[in-house]
Design brief:
single chain; 581 residues; alpha+beta; 5-stranded antiparallel β-sheet
Length: 581
């Protein structure tokens, strides 16, 4: 009988144990694969449920870290230039660590390797790769690395970066396969989130257009509609500043009528040349003009401290090249914020075009109302002339002929006095008829356009273009006779600066609040020399005194001179819209 200790018995037993262990290992591997596939499917479902883009990106990077058991994970979004990262979403690094490490990477080194070569990259040790050049101070140590690109409709959207597999292990082929599969699902999820975001954004723009159209067609003033355009554009784009400029009649300039947001008060009323401002360039080209940094943009006048704290900006014409440009809307974000993308600019351009159509319809409605008023006035004038005046004239003739038959001197005198009153009444009615038939406004353009014309003419003589701002209803509130004085005073003031001030900068402000008109002209020249000729100032002072106003001249501490000419306005405004509005 054979004993258990016999070597012929022990050898099959050992082979059986090995086979059982191998079978158990394969069963465990199959279970692990099953569990991992299940985890991958659950991850795909989690990622696919997110419709908000930022939340979707956060879910993708968190899920990636869990699937491959990585301590650190990041998703870098490739910027518009296709060479750097515009956004960076991380897992495993706290906000405190980020604050100590510094700004997020821009896409150099290993991260840039995936941007340049969008293929999966797996490394046992980061520092051994030729593209690696170390980490910034206070950065946690990282050795093992796995990176895969995320494609959205055959375009590389960004990259997934995983480092430091737990327990000191290395990322294997299965990790790469799982992460690549997740990247495909992530691309679909990102595409869905972007489409959903686009639809929501278009819905907000359409709602804003509906509000503007309703405001204009319900009879709201143009200023209210422009203010609504600015507010809606600011809310939807997340801009820090929005300004709306309209062309000044008969000039090559724009005036900023509405400004909301950061430093808005510095923009309101500014008159901008077409060749030295972002808004002017957009208006002249009838196409959007963008700037990555509005403060240092060489196309904009150097006198732009009003843009302090602002960076990316875009100016979009209100209207189209075919239908005519009615104005320009400028949007600017704070320094460090993302630039305006092509998609944002396209939607903003569509919004501005729709707003222009609404403004055109409102103008046509106002024209129709104005024609109806003029026709009604003409009818009233015709009836007064054909009926009232003829009857009054006939009554006067009858009384005058009847006075010959009146013997009483006092009665005869009263009849003749009544005839004179009738003649005076006829004159008054004729004057009223003339007023009804007279064309609204007067020739020569509004005050706004005349002031811009004076400044443009003075620029070659001065050697520089003065900055100009106008606030209030300049064309409506300031009557013609006062407007003539304003133009004369401004011309005299600019002439004095050109002849005597030796200045290289001047600022002009014309404002009105409906009760008073104020013209302020300042420069950085030599100031008012003692004992100098003051005939020009005397003329300006006399003009102000004739209108019940005053002239003041001062020399600020920083040098130069400031002239302020103020006059009261009539209590009643002129009837009808003034020219140029």
């Amino acid at each position: 009988m054979t004993s258990p200790e016999d070597p012929h018995v022990r050898l099959p037993q050992l082979k059986l144990d090995e086979l059982l262990e191998e079978l158990q290992a394969r069963i465990d591997a199959a279970r692990g694969t099953r569990d991992r596939v299940r985890s991958l499917l659950e991850a795909v479902l989690v990622v696919g449920r997110e419709l908000d883009l930022e939340h979707a990106l956060g879910a993708i990077v968190h899920t990636a870290a869990v699937l491959v058991d990585a301590e650190y994970a990041a998703l870098g979004v490739i910027g518009p230039d296709g060479q750097t990262l515009s956004a960076f979403h991380t897992v495993g690094v706290s906000d405190e660590d980020v604050a100590v490490i510094g700004p997020y990477p821009e896409g150099h080194g290993i991260l840039g390797e995936l941007i340049r070569h969008p293929q999966p990259l797996r490394l046992a040790k980061l520092s051994h790769h030729p593209a690696s050049y170390g980490f910034p101070p206070h950065h946690p140590p990282m050795n093992s690395f796995l990176g895969v690109p995320i494609r959205v409709r055959d375009q590389v959207f960004g990259n997934l970066y995983l480092t430091e597999k737990r327990d000191g292990a290395e990322f294997d082929e299965e990790d790469e396969s799982v992460l690549s599969t997740l990247a495909v699902a992530a691309g679909v999820a990102i595409d869905n989130a972007r489409l959903y975001e686009d639809s929501r954004l278009r819905e907000r723009w359409l709602r804003a257009n509906a509000d503007i159209t309703h405001s204009l067609m319900s009879g709201s003033a143009r200023a209210e509609a422009l203010d609504l355009i600015a507010e809606r554009a600011r809310e939807i784009t997340g801009s820090a500043l929005v300004a709306v400029a309209m062309p000044v009649t008969d000039t090559k300039s724009l005036t900023v009528e509405i400004a909301v947001g950061l430093h808005a008060e510095a923009h309101r009323g500014l008159v901008l040349p077409l060749h030295e401002s972002l808004m002017g360039l957009a208006y002249a080209a009838a196409a959007p003009v963008a700037s990555d940094d509005v403060i240092h943009d060489p196309r904009i006048s150097s006198q732009s401290p009003r843009f302090a704290g602002l960076g990316p900006a875009v100016a979009v014409p209100i209207g189209t090249a075919q239908g005519g440009t009615r104005g320009v809307v400028l949007l600017a974000r704070e320094t460090g914020r993302p630039v305006f993308s092509e998609r944002e600019t396209e939607m903003l351009q569509g919004f501005a075009a729709q707003a222009a159509i609404a403004m055109e319809l409102a103008d046509r409605r106002q024209d129709a109302e104005r024609i109806a008023v003029l026709q009604d006035r003409d009818r009233i004038a015709r009836d007064l002339h054909d009926l009232a005046i003829q009857r009054l004239f006939a009554t006067g003739m009858t009384l005058q002929s009847a006075s010959r038959f009146i013997d009483h001197p006092e009665a005869s005198e009263r009849v003749l006095r009544a005839v004179d009153d009738l003649d005076e009444t006829i004159k008054i009615i004729r004057s009223a008829i003339f007023g009804l038939r007279a064309r609204e406004g007067v020739a020569g353009g509004g005050l706004r356009a005349r002031v811009v014309g004076v400044v443009d003419e003075a620029a070659p003589v001065l050697g520089f273009a003065p900055s100009l701002r106008m606030e209030g209803l300049v064309d409506t509130d300031v009557p013609r006779e006062i407007a003539d004085h304003v133009v004369a005073v401004l011309s005299e003031a600019l002439t004095n600066i050109a002849r005597h001030a030796r200045a290289d900068r001047a600022h002009i402000a014309l404002t009105t609040d409906g009760r008073e008109a104020a013209l302020t002209v300042s420069d950085n020249g030599v100031g008012m020399p003692p004992g100098g000729r003051r005939s020009g100032l005397r003329n300006m002072a006399e003009r102000a005194e004739q209108l019940g106003g005053r002239l003041t001249v001062s020399s600020p501490d920083g040098g130069g001179a400031t002239l302020q000419w103020r006059v009261p306005l009539p209590a009643t405004r002129p009837s009808g819209p003034a020219p140029g509005q």
